[in-house]
Structures are given as structure tokens and as C-alpha cells.
Amino acid sequence: MIPYEPEVMQPPRSGGPRFGLLLEPCEDVSAVVRTVKDAERRGFDSVLIADHARTMSPFVSLAFIGEVTSSIKVGTYVVNAAFWRSPALLAREVRTIEKWVGNRVELGLGAGWEREDSVVAGNWASSAEVRAEHLSSIAAGLRTLPDGHRPAARVLMGGSSERSLALAARWADIVAFSGARRASDGSLELLSMGELRSQVDGVMGRIPVGACPELSLNVHSVTTEWWTGRDMPASVLAGSPSDIRRRVEDLRHGLGITYLVVPQADAAVLASAIEGLR
Known about the structure:
The chain has a single domain, classed as Luciferase-like domain (TIM Barrel, Alpha-Beta Barrel). The chain has helices at residues 29-42, 58-68, 87-101, 115-121, 128-143, 162-171, 193-204, 241-255, 267-274; strands at residues 18-22, 46-49, 73-76, 79-80, 105-110, 154-159, 174-177, 180-182, 188-190, 214-218, 221-223, 236-238, 257-263. It is built from nine helices and 13 strands.
């Protein structure tokens, strides 16, 4: 494996590292309980749920997960803003969960990209620009709600396009980088460290004065196998636990990324490296 060497070592922009576990869609309640309790025991900082028309309600699920855990944060990754027309009603859902589980909620927001979700939301004919404008209006609406109606949850936003990252820079408490982009044929292309660095620099140039958002990366793979290619993509953690720990520290000190979200399938591999990072 050829490790990435940061061009300039910088102090992290916020604390960390933190590790989030993105749960796979599952309707087996006992399996979900085992997974989230195991994640809490292994040292993960959050468990996150996607929001799609084909899956169960993320907010009901988060309330349940919060009840069967004690300290781990629970969050959406991400709520499709197209499913919501009123920031106040979305805020009500989040505040209700906060009443149940306390200050352990993270609210991920997105514009929506899957055809099935857009058809259900009634905005499939809308352009990406229109969907982004609606996302911005929801995020702005949450920020401007009066005291007592505004949830305490930190807002996560991000993506891969310049438009989505600009919105995240303006409104988010946590800016999430997808670590990939869609090719013209629809396939997923993972970004190099250099490409991710350019995105981070672009976001930091747009952050409002006085703001200091946490930076997050969607990790696409965590593996014990050696990376045999010349350049390992930014969103891949590979090798031994010590190799993975070095990679996490490179992201933290080189790019200021302190929050890594990993797929459920790779939880066990990452867990073996977490202990040495605390």
C-alpha cells in the first residue's frame, strides 16, 4: 500500500476523530438493536440512517434507536428535503426525538437524487438547481425558527458538486464530502486526495466569518487488504489497523476532516483501529 503523504500538515479545524456508522436498510428490529448496541460498545460516535421512499421512517427509527442506546448519537444521512415543504414541521420531528433521547441528534439534509424518491416527492421533473434551491430554503428556515421551535441538532449537509458544497458551507454545522462523483455513464468515481483537497479548500473559502463547521467524509471502503494501485482514493481506508490509523490522522491533520462515516458492512474492520485513535 502506498500511503498518502499530506502536502502541508495542519492542525485539525475541530476535535476528533469521530466515527459514524451508516446503517443498512433493515426491517428486522432485533437485528437493528444488536447492530446499534454493538456500534456503541465498539466506540462508534454515531449511527446514521438514510431516507428513501422504500425504507422505514428515519425519525421513528431514530427515536427507537435512541431508546435502546445510552450515549451514541443518532442521525439522518440524509433526509430528503423534497419530502418536506415546511421547515417548522421538519423541526417538530427532530425536537420530538430530542425529547426522547436528549441532545444526541444530528440532522443530515440533502436535495434528493434517486428517481424513485423524486417521483414520490413529486419533483422528478425539477432540475438539480430547483431541488438545491428548495434544500437551501429548508436549511434557512430551520435557522430562522424562533426559540422553542428550533431543534438543537447539528445540521449536516454536503455532497460532491460545487453547488451542494456551497450550500453546505453556508448553512451546515457539519460539511460532508461524498468522496466520489458520478461519471457520465452513471458509474461512481472515487476522488483522489488531491481532488478532495481542492473541494475542502473551496468550501473553506466560502465559510461565513465566525463559523467553524466540522468536516466529514463518506468512507466508501474499509479493508484489511493492501492497496495495490498507485494512488489510493481518499475515501478508502486499507491495510492493518495501524495503516488505517495513519490514514485517519492524515485526513485529520492534512485536510481537517475529523468525522468519518463508514458503511455497516465495514464496521468490524474499522472498530479494530478505533481504539488506538482515542
